[in-house]
Amino acid sequence: MTDTSAPAEAPPAVLRQDAELIAGVVAAAGRGLVDRETVAEVVALCAVAGEHLLVVGPPGTAKSEAVRRVAGQLGGRYFEYLLGRFTEPNELFGPVDLRSLREGRVEFETAGMLPEADIAFLDEVFLGSTAVLNTLLGLLNERVFRRGGTVLASPLRVCVGAANQLPEDPALAAFADRFLARVFVDPVADARLEELLEAGRRPAPVAHHGGGPTGPGGPDDRLGALDRLAVAARGCELDGVTPLLVSALRRLRAAGVPVGDRRAVRSQRLVAAAAVLDGRTVATARDLWVLPLVAPTADTQALARDTLGDLIEKAANRSLTHAAEELSRSSAARAERLARTGAALLAGHRGLPEGRDSRLRLEAALREIDAGFAPADLPAALAGIRAELVAAVAPS
Question: How far apart are CA 53 and CA 42, in angstroms?
């Protein structure tokens, strides 16, 4: 069995490199997906936090594609399944081991199945039978698979569940609560349909499931970076931000956002993961943008953003730029996202022959910067990127 022991705590410089590597991986996964960058980034956030994610939205909104691409870029073993009312536990967890059964032991063959996956995606997750969901509960909670005589430590970093809508059955509430973070998606807006059609014509990024190069930047290195960040998140210093976090949770409850004790405690894991993905081992107010993720519905997430407006107005994240901006609506997060986007466009432009399409993208980025910030309010990093964009589009 693969060794799933946690790596030792890495020095700060390594963690910053790891955060940058994961940022690049997530950006590569999101390339070609329109308005699904937040899903891709929150998958990485939850993998570092050791929590699970629920993605809710109508059919055909690229929920599975976003998760599949992130998993493919990260590498490792990936398991995906569409659940139904008649899905048998063996379809997820593996069949009975017939050799053991002949010897009087009930054990299961888990190779290639959910218990041995690094990243898992379960579509229509609430349609599973009671037997399936009960077995899943233990695996999600403890990262240990127990069935019959089989007891297996699972390497599962994150399980993403997807559903077209939240369940109305109260009996499913306890199971749904195991998915701490929630992302709600809608069809792409009409204004971006041209971009959607263009993206649909491009090939998807190449996946790296279960193999590939092991050198720097290869799949093994990517999972190693994820694990080092997860270790750092577990040791992240939260004392300084705790008073703000307590104030935020009280506000949410007072506003009518249902945040139970378990979700309140585990929200700290998302804050810590945001900090290390931003290159730090000490959490600050900059990391509180994650809190709307724990609100259970789309309406309560919007309420959470409004309620916490002044607490998250300076929130941002260098690695998860789209998610931080969407969940905080802060100018700092917008600046981080525009700076990263501009830098990526410039890098691509320099590697291409002079062309109209590349120039148009640079001009569009410039227009977005100028529409979002007055010249006097431009952060230094974004001002530098803007100057480079201006130089790149200037007539030669």
Answer: 8
Query: Per-residue pLDDT for 269 more than 90?
Result: yes
Tokens, residue 89: 């536990």
d(CA 342, CA 339): 5
Given strand 158-163, what is the order of strands in its sheet?
Answer: 78-82, 119-123, 158-163, 53-56, 181-184
Alpha helices in 235-297 (DSSP H): 242-255, 261-277
- Amino acid symbol at 234: R
Q: Closest Cα partner for 317 from 350, 272, 364, 361?
A: 272
pLDDT of res. 204: 66
pTM of the entire structure? Answer: 0.90
Q: How high is the pLDDT of residue 211?
A: 46
- DSSP, collapsed to helix, strand or coil, labels residue 53 as strand
pLDDT confidence bin for 213, thresholds 50/70/90: very low
Per-residue confidence at 201, pLDDT binned at 50, 70, 90?
confident
Reference 186, options 43, 295, 17, 63; nearest CA is: 63
Give the closest residue to 211 by CA, choosing from 201, 203, 222.
222
What is the residue type of 76? G
* Whole-number Cα distances in Å, 89 to 64, 101, 138, 379: 21, 17, 13, 53
Structure confidence by residue, pLDDT tens digits, 280-291: 999 999 999 999
Cα–Cα distance measured from residue 325 to residue 145, given in angstroms and rounded to the nearest whole number: 37
CA atoms within 13 A on the CB side of 133: 21
The mean of the pLDDT values for the chain is 89
Pairing mode, strands 119-123 and 158-163: parallel
**Helix, coil or strand: residue 261:** helix
- 3-class state of residue 247 by DSSP: helix
Q: Where are the alpha helices (DSSP H) in 177-260?
A: 193-200, 219-234, 242-255
Pairing of strands 144-147, 150-153: antiparallel
